[in-house]
Structure formats: C-alpha cells, structure tokens
Amino acid sequence: MVGRHESAWDTIIFLLYHRDPAYVLKKELLSIPFYGWFARKVGMISVDRSAGSKALRGLVKDAKAAIDLGRAVIIFPEGTRMKPGVTRKLQPGAAALYESAGVPVVFFSLASGHVWNTRFKRPGFIRLRIHPPVPPGLSRAEFLAKATGIVHDDSRHLAQSVGAVA
Prior knowledge:
Blueprint: E1 2-3, H1 9-17, E2 22-26, H2 35-41, E3 45-47, H3 53-68, E4 73-74, H4 93-101, E5 107-111, E6 127-130, H5 140-161
Helix pairs in contact: 3-4
C-alpha cells in the first residue's frame, strides 16, 4: 500500500486493515525504547536513509521477502510525516518496489493530521480513501504520476472536505 503520512493514526490503522502488515520506516525509529523493540519483533522494514542506493536495494529485498510471506507492505513515499497541505517530492522507494515486486499496488489517500499529530489530538473527522489495486506493468513515470495524484492531490481534496486545508 502506498499513501500519505500525516499522523500516528496512519501507522496504526493498517494494523486493523491487514492481518500482518510490514511498514517501511526510517532506521532511527528502531532506537526508540519499546517502539523500536516492537518494530523489530514484528518485522517492520527499516531504511537507513543515509545509505543511498544500498538502502533502496535493502528496502526492495526486505519488502519482497515480506510479500512472499503474504504480508502487505505499507510505504509512505514522501519519506516522512507531512503537515496537512504540505507536500514533498516522492522518494524512489515505492516506485522501485512496484517495478521489482511484480504485484499490484493499492494506493490510499487520507486526511488525518488536522485531528491527530505529535502535539495534539482533537475532535474531528479523519478521511481515508482506499483506491482500487493497480496491476504491475506501469512505467516508472506512470507510477509516479499516479502516486503523486493520489498522495498529493487526492489527499489535499480529502483535507479540504473536512476543512483541514484552505
């Protein structure tokens, strides 16, 4: 699954949606007591963002191993949590994984950061849209265009629908 990351909610919801998901996360998170131990124990996929192409190869290898075990891989292609309405160029991991894994990808768009972020949780509505699976075979450019349309544009539309972004 490929989509936007705005809040801790985004890292929890797919634990309910999938039996045994494997989230892609930055390696630094593994050093957080309890959370890091949990992430290692359940087989999350860590990426050393300072390792360049070596990190990309490791991501693909570890994600393919998770897919072979029947696990859904959840990746946030902007590479970090983003504030509502703010976008960042998509990182290459999701496209590399799509090209090499040979399995359909499910995109999702969401608006959650206006309700739940690192500093507050407030009443409101979180919107999540799960898009139909995209079969393998798109070119990298087609994949990135589709990903951008969903991760940036559709997530912004959802945020506007709940009054999170002007």
